[in-house]
Write a structure and sequence with these properties.
This protein has four helices and three strands, in the order ααααβββ. The chain is mainly α. The chain has two domains: about 10-65; about 70-115, no CATH class. The chain has a three-stranded antiparallel sheet, with no helix packed on it. A hairpin with a 5-residue loop joins strand 1 and strand 2 (about 95-100). The mean pLDDT is about 80.
Length: about 120
């Protein structure tokens, strides 16, 4: 007697469902990539579309980049830190105004404050 190897209907059905699920996941991921690249490369024709594109780029950068710097050196290298003006007082009490935190001497950096515009 020979044994016939037959696939059970349960295993075949599970494989078919899993294959269909994986196909839809891949198609959805591909659709997301296409939509992402379209929004990034689209040239805005009006102010609303430009604002939405800026908002999306900001959201995307926040999701893809670490949110908090680990060290003060990383904070100083960020462009946001360079765009703010600061002031600090030295040992004699004289106020100094600078354009970036890097221009503040190291011993006064903890006391430096952002200059409100």
């Amino acid at each position: 007697m020979t044994k016939k190897s037959r696939k059970t209907p349960v295993k075949s059905s599970m494989r078919r469902r899993l294959g269909g699920f994986l196909l839809w996941v891949v198609l959805f991921a591909l659709l997301l990539v296409v939509a992402d690249q379209t929004v990034l490369r689209l040239s805005p024709k009006g102010p609303l579309l430009g604002e939405l594109q800026d908002c999306y780029r900001d959201l995307r950068s926040r999701l893809l980049i670490r949110s908090k710097p680990d060290a003060i050196e990383e904070l100083l290298e960020q462009p946001e830190a360079l765009s703010q003006s600061y002031f600090y007082a030295d040992r004699q009490g004289e106020l100094h105004f600078v354009d970036s935190l890097q221009q503040v001497p190291a011993r006064y950096r903890n006391e430096a404050q952002i200059l409100a515009e």
